Amino acid sequence: MGPDCASHICVAHLFKPGRPISGQRRGRCQHAELFGSGRFPAPSHPSVSARPGDAYVTTAPEAPEATDAIGEPTEETPVAHRFITLRSILIALILAVGFSVLIPWNDWFLKNTYLNNHYMPLGLTLVLLVMGMVVNPLLGRFRLLTGEMVVIAVVMLGLAGVTSSGLMRMLPFMMTGPASVLPTNPRFANTMAERGEPGPGGERGPITQWNVPHQLWIGIEAQGDIDRNDPEFRHVVEGYLRGMPRGDERDTLRVTHRSIVTWEDAAGQKHRQLALAGRQAQYHADDPQVLNLDDPMTGLPFVGQQADRQIALPEGNARILAIEAPSLPWYAWPSALLAWAPLLIGALLACIGIAGVVRRQ
Q1: CA 106 to CA 122: how far, in whole Å?
Q2: Which residues contact 315 (CB under 8 A, 6 or more apart)?
Q3: How many helices (H) and strands (E) does the chain have?
Q4: How far apart, in whole angstroms, are the C-alpha atoms of residue 310 and residue 317?
Q5: Can you list the residues of the chain whose pLDDT is less than 70?
Q6: Are 159 and 99 in contact (CB under 8 A)?
Q7: Which of 33, 61, 151, 249: CA 20 to 30 A from 279?
């Protein structure tokens, strides 16, 4: 090829690449003279450019430019998949509710290996394996996207910080622990509370005011010392820290604080009463639905007795028909949780705000 044909594609050589080349002494391809002299008609293909006396060259056709409906050029954008979808949110919520019920029973009641804790929780790993190896192949083209599985994993990781080795493992101990620790550490109690005048024997005066928000703690009254021997304290605080007695067999239940007793008096009339002792018995001394276990005449003979036992009362012998075990003290927690609510809600909003700041918009 000549110099002109070296940088372009000669039409004649393109269709007849084996044809010899001449006219190189003039610096042009011989076929340029043929097309330029009019002996051959100039090609009309739009990819071929020509002018008289010069070589016809071809140029590679450009790809058509993308246009919209009215013919304006448009930019091609990659297809973006949404990962926060309705099904990913529903699956995450269903798993969250299921694990919220299963985790306390497995971790703390059965005392098995924790299901959803640490940075690679067992429950989350199992869920992702089942989704990737079982669920997705069955769904076919409707399979879960990687981003949707990430959304589910993030919700499960957040759940691990609440129901397992996180909030629900630490917060209840912070709410009940001070009531158990302060009586054995007078130095802390004297610093955190103000006391009245000492007694005649030099004994410490009763607590008149707390210098800290005692509403955050369960088992601490606004005034007065913490009585660890009070039945209500043993039921609420010690019952949580050390565990309540298990088993509801008929031959092991006995009449105790917060148990429900069904008994029959000497006249054959049946009674169903809530057994109370200590401060709670004093607060409800006039309630006919309460069996005051501190009353030496009508309540104390019931203490420690089992069902089908005869009890000697001033009106005659009574018989215990049934005993129901003390229920969980749910009533003691709402007020303390309400006091912790500003801190918990504030921390949650702060985490959401941080996530919004670091998220790529």
Answers
A1: 13
A2: 265, 266, 267
A3: 13, 9
A4: 6
A5: 1-81, 186, 189, 199, 201-203, 245-251, 359-361
A6: yes
A7: 249
